[in-house]
């Protein structure tokens, strides 16, 4: 057998060319958070399996902001976050959403009918912001679903008793108005009788707070303020609820630079210069810069900025955002500290903007700082991420851990008292002209001297601005 020098040289040259591409890819990845060629992605190593993290995103982020059950007789129950019932009912709602995305046949209705529908016997699911249908399909692992008439959903109402046949009735409040769908119950789903049994058990539980919708609490329009008809309220003279106070601590305050580098940069940490700048740890390479302040604020910026043509799908952008969130959250934030999507913006041609905030049990935590970070700008949300299908463009994140007190106190949530408190604080004229979209019990963390925060009642407009009043303790 003869040794062919020409073939041997070709083999060596091929190995050198492939090695060069791999090295270029690694350098590109370290500087840009992405490989220049798709086939080079096989050389990257991630801490968690991609599929595992995506499933974690579906479980952690895709939750209702509020889930309410009504008996159709002016009694409504707000189902608690960690309740098995909430999980079961939301699972049922999602099965019907899949049906809706897989078929057509919705009927468009006048949106003014919503105020009549929400007092019926049923289950109401609300998101804090309108969720794009393409992102909902990704959450439901149903990306190939049929195209629907609207591009986002805000609220879902399930009315099991409305149809006289063996069908469930689903109403969707969407970006294009109100839609109705009539869908068979299905043998593996809750029946009409199952829903009635759930409501009966809630009626028998005397420890659960019972609410009314604002439409029921104000039948003669005595209250003139522009309050949504589906705002939950208590109107009896003994309208008290047991709630904790909250505190927070900053895990990044005493962290050393090496630990911070491992948490923030993961397996890319060796490709970054690091130094201390005033009150911040800085990690920097050619295209990326992170600042981690000792007060808990993390700032990230992709220096070249967003490139045109890379916006891509909202689901791809969300996956990039959540991978970033998952890495930081696992390092600094306790597992019981939940986050939720509070806003989604897609008005920029080159990226999406995802806004997240913290939850303390069943209640949202509002962030309200006059100035934070390198530019001393106001900080109004926990996490704001700008992302496209390729990478994270910018992020600001107030990294804190929230603890609830073990002691629960009784707070007055009588609706008229709360309104009176807002009028005293902001004035009647301001309240009458305020466009209220959402009302909720919440907590507000601000730059005051207090480190312990009591619950408040918030009324919020469509732009996310809000008025609030402290709840009076019994």
| Biggest pleated-sheet summary | 13 strands, mixed
| Low-confidence regions | 26-48
Q: What portion of the residues fall into strands of 2 or more residues?
A: 25-35%
**Morphology:** globular
Number of strands: 28
The averaged pLDDT comes out at: 87
Supply the number of structural domains.
4
Give the structural class.
Answer: alpha+beta
Please tally the helical runs, counting DSSP H or I stretches of 4 or more residues. 11
Helix content: 25-40%
**Structural Rg:** 26 Å
Q: How far apart, in Å, are the first and last alpha carbons? A: 97 Å
Q: What do you see in this structure?
A:
With 474 residues, the chain is α+β, with helices and mostly antiparallel strands. The protein folds into 4 domains: 5-44, no CATH class; 57-210, no CATH class; 248-401, TATA-Binding Protein; 405-473. The protein has 11 helices and 28 strands. The strands form 5 sheets. Strands 12, 13, 14, 15, 16, 17, 18, 19, 20, 21, 24, 26 and 27 form a 13-stranded mixed beta sheet that branches. It has a 7-stranded antiparallel beta sheet with strand order 2-1-4-5-6-7-3. The radius of gyration is 26 Å and the shape is globular. The N and C termini lie far apart (97 Å). 30% of the residues are buried.
How is this structure best summarized?
The protein has 474 residues and is of the alpha+beta class. The protein is 28% helix and 33% strand.
Label this structure with key terms.
about 475 residues; alpha+beta; TATA-Binding Protein; 13-stranded mixed sheet; seven-stranded antiparallel sheet; 11 helices; 28 strands
